[in-house]
């Protein structure tokens, strides 16, 4: 099992639960869209999987490990198997686009001669082949998003989490980015993508997990009327 949620609840400091008794599991090579209105808990669910938070209650399993009971020292090794694209990008301002993308490989101790072509190929794929030496301060929001995407995928992670990965790019680039996710999924990565883009969900025809007020509802055919109502 790559990801398992058993009666997972998450509450922040004010005591209100943003996730309530969530249950689902994903095995190697599965693909899920995560949908739902703003404030339904999509980003919080992804952050639990990335181990940025621990659940308030329930059992969280990652890569067949019970994370709820795992020692803090065991978590970094699990994080290294996850590629994450969050909306805030989290690029390092003192590094170039190329260096930001290469950072996970450097941290893992991989030599530059082993990752150089992968980094260049990914930056070319997302349309930034001519911006490899640019600093984040000179990049647009869409360009920063694409750098963050390439950084998340460069290590070919076992699990890919993406929060609105096409939110700041044009439709043509969004389609290209999705083809990259699909190819990595075909090669064995488990993929979870949080999105409001109904057209994207319908076009790919992948299974959907929908959150409503912190509760998870599984559906492979999301209701377009519900999407319009949620904005």
Structure in a nutshell:
The protein has 231 residues and is α/β, with parallel strands linked by helices.
- CATH-derived architecture of one domain: 3-Layer(aba) Sandwich
Major beta-sheet overview: 6 strands, mixed
Could you spell the SSE succession in H and E letters?
EEEHEEHEHHHEHEHEEH
Mean pLDDT: 89
Question: What would you call the quaternary organization?
Answer: single chain
Unreliable stretches (pLDDT < 50, length at least 5) are 224-231
From the spread of the alpha carbons, the general shape counts as: globular
Sheet/helix structural class: alpha/beta
Radius of gyration: 18 Å
How would you describe the overall organization of this protein?
The chain has 231 residues and is α/β, with parallel strands linked by helices. It has helices at residues 42-49, 75-79, 97-107, 112-125, 141-153, 171-186, 198-204, 224-230, and strands at residues 3-11, 17-26, 31-35, 57-62, 65-66, 82-85, 159-163, 190-194, 208-212, 215-219. It starts with a strand and ends with a helix. Residues 224-231 have low confidence and may be disordered.
